[in-house]
Design goal:
- With 462 residues, the protein is mainly α.
- The protein is built from 17 helices and no strands.
- Helix 4 runs antiparallel to helix 5 and helix 15 runs antiparallel to helix 16.
- The protein is elongated, with a radius of gyration of 35 Å.
- It starts with a helix and ends with a helix.
Length: 462
C-alpha cells in the first residue's frame, strides 16, 4: 500500500513538472511572438492546460500572462488574460468577479479592433451570462462571435460560439433553435476535422433529440459521444454522455438501462480529480434504487453526499487560495499603475521642457534679430523653424486625444489628421508671413537706427 502511495506521489510530481514545463515554454513563446494571430493561438493552448480541470491553475497561468502583458505592453495578451481570469472565477462560482473581469477584457478588446480576439472574449463573457441565466445577453454575444468568425473563416472559434448558442437555447427551453445550432456545429466540425469537442456536441444533440422524442437519433448521438470521448480518453465527456443517456432512459421508464448508464457515469470519474462530477449520476441512482434496493439506495446516497462534501471542501480550499491570488493580482495592478504614473510623469516633464525650449528658442530668435543677426535669410530661416516647432508641438499634444477618439482606426486617423492639417496649414502660413515680416521690419529699423547713430558720430568727428 505504501509503495502504491509513493508511486502515485511520484506520478503526480512528474505530471506537474511536465505541465509546468509546457506552461513556461508557452509563456516564452508568447513573449517572443510578434504576430497577433499566432500569439492568440499560443495563449489558447496555454489556457487549455488547466481550463477544464483546475480553475486555480488556470487563474495562475492567466496571472502570469497578465504580468508579461504589463511588462511588454502587450494589450492583446492583457485582454486574453483578463478574460481567462473572469472565466476561472466563473468556474469556481464567483460570478461577480467573473463578470467584472470579462467585461474589462471586452472593453479592452473593442479598443484593439482584432476580430479574433473580440470573438474569443465575447464567448467567455457569454458563458458567464449563460451561467447567470441572462440568456438574451449570452445569445447576443455568442451570435456576434459566430458572425465575426464566419466572416474571418475561423472554423474553430466559430464552432465554440455555435455550440454555446445551442447550449443556451437548450437551457432556455427553445429546443428547435438548440437543434439548429447544434446541427450546424456538428456539420462544421465534421467538415473541417476539428473534433476536439465532438463528444460534447454529440451529447448536446443526444439531449436535444431526447427532449424532442427522437429515440433512435438520441441513442445514436449518445453512443457517438461515448465512442469519441473514449477514443480521446476524456473521462469528463464520457461521464457526461453516460449521464445524458441515463436521464434519457429514465424519461422512457427504462429504469434498468438508466441504472446501468448512470453507474458507468459514476465509474468514469470515481477515481479521478473530476470526482465531483459523480454527484448528479449518484443522486439519480439513489432515486432509481429507492424502494427497490435499500442497500444500493444508501450506497449512492452516501456517494452523492461524499461528492457534495468534496465539492464543498474543494470550494473552501479554493476560496483560501483565491484570497492569496487576489492579493498577488492587487499588487500586480498597483505596480502597473505606479509604472503608468511614472511614464505619464516623464511624458509631462518632456512636454513642459519642450514647451520651455520652444519659448526660449523664439525669445532667442527675437533677441538676436534685434542685435547680432543682420542677414534677412537667416532671420526667415529661424522664424520658419520656430513656427514649425510651435505647430508640430500642438500636433503632438493633439495626437493622444485623436487615438482615443478614433480607436486606432487608420481611416479615421487619416481623416482627423487631414482636418487638423487643413486648419493648421493656413494658420501656419499666415503666422509665418506675419511674424517674419514683423521681425524683418524690426531688424531693418534696428539696422537703420544703428546706421543713423554711426553717421551722426562720424559727422561730429568731422
Amino acid at each position: 500500500m505504501k509503495q502504491r502511495f509513493l508511486l502515485c506521489c511520484l506520478l503526480c510530481t512528474v505530471i506537474a513538472t511536465v505541465f509546468a514545463q509546457d506552461e513556461n515554454t508557452l509563456l516564452r513563446q508568447i513573449a517572443g511572438e510578434k504576430n497577433d494571430s499566432i500569439r492568440i493561438e499560443q495563449i489558447i493552448r496555454l489556457f487549455a492546460l488547466h481550463q477544464d480541470t483546475d480553475p486555480l491553475k488556470d487563474m495562475q497561468a492567466a496571472k502570469n500572462l497578465l504580468q508579461h502583458a504589463y511588462d511588454a505592453e502587450d494589450r492583446v495578451s492583457e485582454a486574453m488574460a483578463l478574460s481567462e481570469i473572469g472565466y476561472a472565477y466563473k468556474s469556481i462560482g464567483d460570478m461577480t468577479n467573473g463578470l467584472d473581469f470579462a467585461i474589462r477584457a471586452l472593453d479592452l478588446a473593442e479598443d484593439l479592433r482584432n476580430n479574433e480576439l473580440d470573438a474569443l472574449i465575447r464567448i467567455n463573457l457569454g458563458v458567464v451570462y449563460k451561467d447567470l441565466a441572462d440568456y438574451p445577453k449570452a445569445i447576443a454575444l455568442f451570435s456576434d462571435a459566430a458572425t465575426k468568425m464566419a466572416a474571418e473563416k475561423n472554423d474553430k472559434i466559430q464552432s465554440w460560439a455555435l455550440m454555446n448558442l445551442a447550449q443556451v437555447y437548450y437551457d432556455n427551453g427553445k429546443t428547435d433553435s438548440a437543434l439548429m445550432y447544434a446541427q450546424r456545429t456538428y456539420e462544421l466540425v465534421v467538415r473541417t476535422g476539428y473534433t476536439t469537442y465532438l463528444g460534447f456536441i454529440c451529447t448536446q444533440l443526444g439531449k436535444i433529440h431526447a427532449r424532442l422524442g427522437n429515440t433512435s437519433l438520441a441513442n445514436g448521438f449518445f453512443e457517438m459521444a461515448i465512442r469519441d470521448a473514449q477514443t480521446k480518453n476524456a473521462p469528463k465527456y464520457i461521464s457526461q454522455a453516460y449521464f445524458g443517456l441515463a436521464e434519457f432512459q429514465q424519461q422512457r421508464s427504462q429504469n434498468d438501462s438508466a441504472i446501468i448508464y448512470a453507474t458507468r457515469s459514476v465509474e468514469e470519474v470515481a477515481h479521478t480529480s473530476l470526482f465531483v462530477l459523480s454527484m448528479k449520476p449518484a443522486k439519480l441512482l439513489s432515486s432509481l434504487y429507492e424502494g427497490k434496493n435499500n442497500d444500493s439506495t444508501i450506497k449512492y446516497l452516501k456517494l452523492f453526499i461524499a461528492a457534495n462534501d468534496s465539492l464543498y471542501n474543494l470550494r473552501s480550499i479554493q476560496q483560501v487560495q483565491v484570497l492569496s491570488f487576489e492579493n498577488e493580482l492587487h499588487q500586480q495592478q498597483l505596480a502597473k499603475e505606479k509604472q503608468e504614473a511614472e511614464v505619464k510623469r516623464q511624458q509631462n516633464i518632456q512636454y513642459v521642457l519642450m514647451a520651455l525650449g520652444i519659448v526660449a528658442f523664439i525669445f532667442v530668435v527675437l533677441l538676436l534679430s534685434r542685435t547680432f543677426i543682420t542677414n534677412e535669410r537667416m532671420i526667415e530661416f529661424l522664424g520658419v523653424i520656430a513656427l514649425l516647432l510651435v505647430f508640430e508641438f500642438l500636433n503632438l499634444l493633439l495626437h493622444p486625444m485623436l487615438v482615443k477618439i478614433t480607436h486606432h482606426s487608420p481611416v479615421q486617423m487619416l481623416l482627423a489628421l487631414v482636418c487638423i492639417g487643413g486648419i493648421l496649414a493656413p494658420l501656419h502660413h499666415k503666422a509665418e508671413k506675419w511674424a517674419i515680416k514683423k521681425i524683418l521690419e524690426k531688424n531693418k529699423r534696428v539696422r537703420l537706427e544703428s546706421a543713423r547713430r554711426t553717421i551722426e558720430k562720424l559727422e561730429k568727428e568731422l
